[in-house]
From TrEMBL:
<keyword id="KW-1133">Transmembrane helix</keyword>
<dbReference type="InterPro" id="IPR003594">
    <property type="entry name" value="HATPase_dom"/>
</dbReference>
<dbReference type="Pfam" id="PF00512">
    <property type="entry name" value="HisKA"/>
</dbReference>
<dbReference type="InterPro" id="IPR050980">
    <property type="entry name" value="2C_sensor_his_kinase"/>
</dbReference>
<keyword id="KW-0460">Magnesium</keyword>
<dbReference type="GO" id="GO:0005524">
    <property type="term" value="F:ATP binding"/>
</dbReference>
<feature type="transmembrane region" description="Helical">
    <location>
        <begin position="12"/>
        <end position="32"/>
    </location>
</feature>
<keyword id="KW-0346">Stress response</keyword>
<dbReference type="InterPro" id="IPR003660">
    <property type="entry name" value="HAMP_dom"/>
</dbReference>
<feature type="coiled-coil region">
    <location>
        <begin position="283"/>
        <end position="310"/>
    </location>
</feature>
<feature type="transmembrane region" description="Helical">
    <location>
        <begin position="172"/>
        <end position="193"/>
    </location>
</feature>
<keyword id="KW-0597">Phosphoprotein</keyword>
<feature type="compositionally biased region" description="Low complexity">
    <location>
        <begin position="392"/>
        <end position="413"/>
    </location>
</feature>
<keyword id="KW-0472">Membrane</keyword>
<keyword id="KW-0904">Protein phosphatase</keyword>
<dbReference type="InterPro" id="IPR004358">
    <property type="entry name" value="Sig_transdc_His_kin-like_C"/>
</dbReference>
<keyword id="KW-0902">Two-component regulatory system</keyword>
């Protein structure tokens, strides 16, 4: 394909060059012809003027005492006029004062042949005309020979041959054509080489594009020149990078779906195993287990929606904004932790403040469970994980005034935290903590501290937690001052008419 394009472009360029050379040659030819014609006419006019000045004196000198110009006297006057204008390699002069014209001996070869053959054209009196002859075109200037009293005695004819000029112009045209042909040949070779070099990146682009179709994302070398080809190579590499990023995102999304769906499936499987162990007298336990299974199936559907929303960069929704009793959230978390068989997780249900927050109980439980699983995944076996709830007031910036969150924190990119009284849901561990380099981006999708290996995570857990928390009007923070990892969910407390927190007995 590159060779065909190379040849096509070369042929088109050569055709344009050939037409341009042809036009230049024709214009040059016509200019040479016009210049030659002007030179001949200038000589003819000069000769006519010189002869016209000498006519009265020569005629008067040749006229006898009788005052009548005889044929012999006219011939003498004509010869004397021609003696002062013998002709040149450009022109030939003839004086007609009798039946036989008197013609100069010198002149161009073509005009001499016409003179010897007696076929010199007469021309038109008072003008300069071009007359075709068998010796080529001849330029003729004809004027009357008059005396002082205005009597016409004969004619003056000045001839100029255009054959030599035309031959010279044709020779120049031939040389131009020859030089143009050589130039076209050399230009064709140079253009083919230049087009080959210019189109080589296009061949690389084609090869890279074929590889991209098979899943190989290969970049191409970018030329130093930033012309159209260089820009194309630059944009192609950008496209390859975007395709590679999209491919990586697709793979991460598949891994994330597997990771996020594994939790509710494991909970459901664990409760199904418990269900098979129930006897006839365990109806209440069976109903409770069936309810857990129903909630986990609903949660599966919501997780799919949340993952899709997070990967598209939009808000997770919809969520419920209704009163939620904080101890109930922790109790639901206990059930799910037990269903997963997670060990070393201490959920402080008894110490939870008996207050009501505004949010979605199931989504809050999902957030806490995701944080617990994240802590368990990123810490060595046996590392304690603690979950608790505590009340907090609002400082000047809406940040917690509780001691546990007084240190600077890494925030999700959402809105500022809720003003007024709030509840902090804290998940903390004593593990190695979060890498400081990852901390500023920890809430972004697909950011993980485990890039490979069997325990690699999807990097969507904290992104889902952030989206769900912000959808409920809360905020999520990571406390970098904690030796391990501490994540804090801050949710607004539902307030009574007097401004106090709503509490249940």
């Amino acid at each position: 394909m590159r060779d065909r394009l190379q040849v096509r472009v070369t042929v088109v360029a050569l055709a344009v060059m050939a037409v341009t050379l042809a036009v230049v040659a024709l214009v040059t030819w016509r200019l040479i012809d016009a210049a030659e014609l002007d030179d001949v006419d200038r000589v003819l006019e000069q000769v006519r003027g010189d002869v016209a000045e000498d006519v009265p004196g020569e005629l008067a000198a040749a006229t006898g005492v009788d005052g009548v110009l005889s044929p012999a006297e006219a011939g003498l006057a004509g010869r004397r006029l021609l003696s002062g204008e013998p002709g040149s390699d450009v022109h030939l002069t003839a004086v007609v004062l009798g039946p036989t014209p008197l013609v100069t001996t010198a002149g161009p070869a073509a005009l001499r042949r016409l003179r010897d053959a007696g076929t010199l054209p007469a021309g038109e009196v008072g003008s300069v005309v071009t007359v075709p002859t068998d010796q080529g075109p001849v330029r003729v200037l004809t004027s009357d020979l008059v005396t002082d009293d205005g009597t016409s005695l004969g004619q003056l004819r000045v001839y100029g041959s255009l054959a030599e000029g035309r031959a010279a112009s044709r020779d120049a045209l031939l040389r131009i054509a020859l030089a143009g042909g050589v130039g076209l040949l050399v230009g064709a070779v140079l253009l083919l080489v230049a087009m080959g070099r210019a189109l080589r990146p296009v061949a690389d682009l084609a090869a890279a594009a074929r590889g991209t179709g098979t899943g190989e994302h290969r970049r191409v070398p970018e030329p130093e020149r930033m012309d159209e080809v260089g820009t194309l190579a630059h944009e192609f590499n950008g496209m390859v990078d975007r395709l590679a990023a999209a491919e990586q995102q697709r793979r991460e999304l598949l891994a994330s779906v597997s990771h996020e769906l594994r939790t509710p499936l494991a909970v459901a499987q664990g409760h199904l195993e418990m269900f098979t162990a129930f006897g006839p007298g365990d109806a209440d336990a069976a109903r409770e287990t069936a309810e857990v299974l129903r909630r986990e199936l609903e949660r599966l559907g919501r997780i799919v929606e949340d993952l899709t929303a997070v990967t598209r960069g939009v808000e997770v929704g919809p969520v419920q904004r209704e009163p939620v009793f904080v101890p109930d959230v922790l109790e639901q978390l206990v059930l799910r932790v037990q269903g997963l068989g997670l060990e070393g997780v201490d959920v402080a249900v008894a110490g939870a403040p008996p207050v009501v927050v505004v949010g979605d109980e199931d989504r809050l439980t999902q957030c806490l469970l995701a944080l617990v699983i994240n802590a368990r995944t990123h810490t060595p076996a046996g590392t304690p994980v603690r979950v608790r709830a505590e009340e907090a007031g609002a400082g000047p910036t809406g940040r917690s005034t509780a001691g546990s969150t007084a240190a600077p924190a890494a925030h999700g990119p959402g809105a500022p935290g809720p003003a007024g009284p709030a509840v902090l849901l804290v998940v903390e561990d004593d593990g190695p903590g979060i890498d400081p380099e990852v901390l500023p981006r920890v809430f972004e999708p697909f950011v993980t501290t485990r890039p490979g290996g069997a325990r690699r995570t999807s990097g969507l857990g904290l992104a889902v937690v952030r989206s769900l928390t912000e959808a409920q009007g809360g905020t999520v923070e990571v406390d970098p001052s904690w030796p391990g990892a501490r994540v804090v969910l801050r949710l607004p407390v539902e307030q009574a008419d007097d401004g106090s927190a709503t509490m249940l007995p």
